[in-house]
Amino acid sequence: MQVKVVPSGLTRPTSAGGSLDATYGTTGTADYYFSGGLASTDSWTGYAVGQTKTVVIPPESESVAISVVTRADNLTEQNVVTMELVPGSAYAVDPANLRAQVLIFDGPEFTLYELADSRWGSPDWSYANTMATGINGAASPQVSGWANHIIPSYSTVGGFWQSTWGSINDLWSVRNGGTSPLPYGIANSGMLVGISGTRAFRRFGSTTTLLPPTTGTSGAYGVNPGGTDTSHYIVGFSPAAGESRPAVWVNGGNPRDLLQNLPGGGPGIARAVNDAGEVVGTAQLIPGQISQPFRSKAGAAFLGAGDELPAPAGAFDSSGVANAVSVGGGAGGWFRLNEFQNPKVATYWAPRSGNNPNGSGKNLSRWVPPTPGPADKLSEALGVAQVNGTDWSVGWSGDDETLSASNSKLKAVFMKGVGNPPVWRDLNDRHFTHGMTGWSLKKATAVNAQGWIVGNGFLNGTARGFLLVPRAAGQ
Question: By CB atoms within 10 Å of each CB, which of 99, 108, 112, 156 scores lowest?
Answer without folding.
Answer: 99
